Amino acid sequence: MTFGVVMLVHTAFDRAEQVARHWTRGGCPVVIHIDNNVARDDADALHTALSADPLVRFSKRHRCEWGTWSLVEATISASELMLTEFPQADHVFLASGACIPLRPVAELRDYLAERPHVDFIESATTADVPWIVGGLSDERFTLFFPFSWKRQRFLFDRFVDFQRKLGVRRRIPEGLVPHMGSQWWCLTRSTLAAILNDPKRNRYERYFHGVWIPDESYFQTLTRLYSTRIESRSLTLSKFDFQGKPHVFYDDHLQLLRRSDCFVARKIWPQATRLYQTFLGTGGVPAGRSEPNPGKIDRIFSRAVERRLRGRPGLIMQSRKPRHGFEHGITAKPYSVFQGFSELFEDFEDWLSRTTGARVHGHIFAPDRVHFAEGQRMMNGALSDSAALRDYDAQQFLTSLIWNTRGERQCFQYGPEDTQDIVEMMARDPNAQVSIISGAWAVPLFKSGSTFAQLRRTAARLQKIEARQLEILRASWANARVRIWSMAEFIEAPMEPLQTIIDEMGGTGQRHLSEAPHMVDLSGFGQFLQQLKNQGMHPYLMGDFPMESTDQIYAPPARKPYLVR
Amino acid sequence: MRSVVDRTAAIRQDDILLFCTARNENVRLPFFLKYYRDLGINHFLFVDNDSSDGSVDYLAEQPDVSVWTTNGSYKRSRFGMDWINHLLRRHGCNHWCLIVDPDEFFVYPFCDTRPLSALADWLDASAIRSFSAMLLDMYPKGPIGATVYQRGENPFEIADWFDSGNYTLRRNPAYHDLWIQGGPRARAFFSEAPEKAPALNKIPLVKWSRRYVYLSSTHCLLPRGLNMVYEEWGGEKASGALLHAKFLHTFADKAKEELARRQHYAGSMEYRAYIRKGPETSDLWCRCSERYINWRQLEILGLMSKGNWA
């Protein structure tokens, strides 16, 4: 006793011939259906090549078109022929010309012989199927589809819309519960015979004639009526991508296919010579009694679909240029932005890199040039330090920097003097950790010793820019982790906010800061602000500083490391 | 344009064709032909622009090459595109056509294990008509031209470095193409005028139809839908790269020649910048340059993508 193979062929005839011979060499009868669209010469050639084989028959040819009843018709004709011509076929295996048996025919025969009453057919109700592509699930069974999807797409879509509006619902024949699944099945003789000899077959056929993609539902539905035991899975390894077209196997998939232990795989690229040689030449790769295990192949293909639909977060490249709001990750990795810290602390950058081990840049958006960490002129990915190149597209400069340095936390200094084009993007970016000591831009002005007439203008400009920044970063749509302190608030207890920021940056465990950065000497700063006010400029972002001429409280606490418990 | 050797009658239905304009590129041709034959190009169609180095004779000897020759102006033919568009329309329809310069080498996902016809079949099955491959400038370590490129040699044994992450992309609303700039030329020659840096976006592989036409070089096509080679909703489409073997010793010679002819794009800006910088000292290599290994490396770096081809 054995199983028979029904082969639907429409292209790559030499491969189909090769596979058919492989089946018959293993003792399996084969019935071939050649698509009626195929040129007579090609069909005749296949006919001649295989007609001498006593185990091969050719069934009545139908003109097949994807998504239509013709494919089921072809399958039915071939199956009927199989059942009458080859009484030794206990199971019937539906395959295509692009299928390739991976394991020896005998292993599949034994496998089926041990399960004489099992029908292997993927069959699930429409409510439970996640893989439907194109949005038609239930409606496959309840609408009319007189137009060809391939040739008359516009009419097809409009007519579906029209029926939806009208609320058209075809009646499903009594007793049928629509099921769907992979079109590649392996049924027992008794189930298949029952389906083909059903007294109501004409009624069912008329119904399925109007169903969309009936080759994924006709047998899947009717098997439910007759089968004593259904294994709802296909013995054919066949993966579909997001467009609903099958993934193709090439020579470089050889090892994957060898280890999958699947019986049959599709679809094979006709020119994958090594695959055909390996699996047909030597009679297949034995796997004993093991069950098919396509897990690894599943993962590879689902990763490919994921790559196509979601892409790599934070990557902008020639074939991925997401629109605003569809980035799936504006930047690749978390990064930290500090505003006002290097103004308030003398050695903030060194301190930060010592404490966190992150890469700490200076003002990378400074007007003169990009101040990369350690004074470097060039960064990963050959990012140049030219301000003109950077400002040509500041946002992509930042996404490139973060993408190029994946695996290493990036920190940089920022301020109202710098290129402002990135503020809105940072605010939207959940990867951005933005910490701002507002008003700290006044410290370098205070230290510069320039005349107030000059400073007044600069101070007014910087304050305006920073106020605008804060407004954006505080917007309701902002996703960044934003922390803003006024300068007065911050210097009261600087260690606590620093600890919070460092903790959030994560990395190696919970650590207490044992060393504080050195704050600049602020004595006289209150007076400096008052003088600005006297000049008619109103500095407010730094908070309230009392005007004391010699105030010790803002002086650096002590020129020595300072411990926090 | 005059036909020298026309072997186009030998083109079969499923053949993949390569179209190329060349001028005095004889030294590059042997490796170029070998590279693309190995990839699975079935027929080459060359337009020779008034070469004087024996290119025409060499090409005419090749069994899978058809050659036309012209002494028309490269610039006035829109950088050779008029000639190529004409040939595409006559011989390219319903074929997958690869349109490259003699110094451009096409790399695509799985190109080390799958021939070009596998890509073409996959694109057909996916209903994709055009495939992008950005230009990746390759350069040597040390001054350009320190090592002399020998005929037949793999140019990427000399120029095997590239920039991996300093590109800017913007969408051109008129034709929906992506305008890509950056790389070593932008940082070395255009660091003060980045908007003038050369375009690196290319769409060199197209299933040709009589309704199609290249607008400027292979950067941009009509109808505009062919330029939509990028995903806008977050995913990644499949794409490749054109390794650009421009920076060999021939670059220095060409710079002088082109400057005299003033034929090249952007008024020979980059040649001028190159000569101004001084050919002896001009080293495009830097500490952050990346050394080329294979397509998988480019994929990981995010310069090209497998898309959903697995």
Brief digest:
Helices cover 38% and strands 14% of the residues of chain A. Chain A contains 22 helices and 19 strands.
Please give a structural write-up.
The complex is a heterodimer of chains A (565) and B (310). Chain A has a domain at 335-554: Rossmann fold, CATH 3.40.50. Chain A has a five-stranded mixed sheet, sandwiched between helices. In chain A, 38% of the residues lie in helices and 14% in strands. In chain A, strand 15 and strand 16 (383-384) form a beta hairpin. By secondary structure, chain B is of the alpha/beta class. Chain B folds into two domains: 1-102, Rossmann fold, CATH 3.40.50; 103-310, no CATH class. Chain B has eight helices and 16 strands. Chain B has helices spanning 29-39, 55-61, 81-92, 116-125, 183-189, 249-261, 269-277, 295-301; strands spanning 2-5, 16-22, 43-49, 65-70, 96-99, 104-107, 130-131, 133-137, 161-162, 167-171, 178-182, 205-207, 213-216, 220-222, 240-244, 290-291. Chain B has a seven-stranded mixed sheet with strand order 1-4-3-2-5-12-7, with helices on both faces. A three-stranded mixed sheet of chain B has the order 6-15-8. Chain B has a two-stranded antiparallel sheet with strand order 9-16. In chain B, strand 2 (16-22), helix 1 (29-39) and strand 3 (43-49) form a beta-alpha-beta unit. In chain B, helix 6 packs across helix 7. The longest helix of chain B has 13 residues, at 249-261. The radius of gyration of chain B is 18 Å and the shape is globular. Chains A and B meet through helix 12, strand 15, strand 16, helix 15 and helix 16 of A and helix 4, strand 10, strand 11 and helix 5 of B.
